[in-house]
Amino acid sequence: MEGIFHAPRRKRTVYESYESPFPIPLSHDSCDREFKIYQAEIINNCVIVTNPEDIERLYSQGYFGKGILSRSRPQYSVAEQELQINLRGSKPQFPIISSKKYQCHLEWAKELLKGQGLDLDSVTKLLDDYTSPLNLPEEDPPAASETPLEGDNGEESPSLEGNPMYDPLAKYISTEPDAKDAVEEWDKQSLEKMHCHKHDDLIAQCGCKPKRRRGPNQPIPRALEDDKHEYVLVQEEEQSSEACEDHAKGETKKQLVCRRNPFKIFEYLQLSREEAFFLCYTLGCLTVRYEKEPLTILKLWEIFGASQPNFPTTYMAYHHFRSKGWVPKIGLKYGTDLLLYRKGPPFYHASYSVIVEIVDENFEGRPLRPLTWKSLAGLNRTTVNVSKELLFCFLIKSHGFTEKDLASPGCMKKIKVQELILNRWIASRERMDQDEL
């Protein structure tokens, strides 16, 4: 029986425009669009993209990956949405967060500084100075995105950074010239054991130079050394005599206090293994590194297969649907292997939940997902309740195909694909259709 195609359901509100199906130049694109090799790395068994420009292009052009702190597009903001909406008329210049959330950032910064060897008293004093309330100029607020680091003529322009009036950390910055060779201060045994926080490696391996020994009166922690501070407005209870009287009556007044954010959070893009391999193998626009070494296609296939046993089959299904114009995403939320979107998640709801199986020419073989009639009916009911259709993707092995063939991506040449849509047969509806005929 031939399946009935149901048009994808478009989302009611679309907040962005469609750019491109892939992050590479296409035949109809203008000639000024260049082919770019994006960079990713494997960290804790996850494929992560850290470059902001690569993140923007990979997600906007093909909707590859998801933000590690967001549901889809990497758009995490430290601001709390409810507070922003309540004060929408005042047009605040900086993100607004609650006092409770700000205290969490303080605790994270405190733990990070303690891990760098500072004692508790130094950490407390440093954070108190760094997060003290600021009276910012109204005309030219020192936002990180607006404060120029250099003038147009190449000279340094006046900045609030380093000014003791606005920068409490200025008094910690040593005015003494750096030593020409800081390595002389450390013996060889200390260098072999010294850890580089920037590269997460030993100093002797990464090639970085150790910093000068820090005296007790010169705490310059790495966590607070960034040139660009992030400013936030913290909603706190007003501390005044009138506020105390109102508090006694059961009323609390809130005020916004400008402070530095002691713990900045940057959101990365996480690619699924199927997405990363498609960008490397099919499009050739991604380089994946592990411990700073670029991985070959075969090595990447081997690593992904070792960490995810069903990777070869799910990738073949991913490759098939991507080539047909769908945007596949991981279907774990609905108990399947893949979800298929038209154009991308911002424009349409997922149309199909896909289960992948690999079989021989007689549709026989050990199932990857053993299903009883009861579990199949439950999975189908779950899929229908979220307005999707259950689709089986059968990967049909050619004659002579063995398990050893799955050791390389060349096995896809010996695979055929057949799709099967599962629909629930309802007797009463079937009778009505027959009566109409």
From TrEMBL:
Role this protein plays: Constitutes one of the two catalytic subunit of the tRNA-splicing endonuclease complex, a complex responsible for identification and cleavage of the splice sites in pre-tRNA. It cleaves pre-tRNA at the 5'- and 3'-splice sites to release the intron. The products are an intron and two tRNA half-molecules bearing 2',3'-cyclic phosphate and 5'-OH termini. There are no conserved sequences at the splice sites, but the intron is invariably located at the same site in the gene, placing the splice sites an invariant distance from the constant structural features of the tRNA body.
EC identifiers of the protein: 4.6.1.16
Family affiliation: Belongs to the tRNA-intron endonuclease family.
UniProt enzyme class: lyase
GO BP terms, alphabetized: mRNA processing; tRNA-type intron splice site recognition and cleavage
Domain of life: Eukaryota
Protein name: tRNA-splicing endonuclease subunit Sen2
Chain ranges of the tRNA intron endonuclease catalytic domain: 311-395
The keyword Transmembrane is annotated on this UniProt entry: no
One GO MF term: nucleic acid binding
Residue ranges of domain tRNA intron endonuclease N-terminal in the record: 252-301
tRNA processing is among the record's keywords: yes
Region annotation (Disordered) ranges: 131-168
Keywords associated with the record: Lyase, mRNA processing, Nucleus, tRNA processing
A GO cellular component annotation in the UniProt record: cytoplasm
Locations listed in the record: Nucleus
Pfam families found in the cross-reference section: tRNA_int_endo, tRNA_int_endo_N
Stretches assigned to coiled coil: none
Active site feature: 341, 349, 388
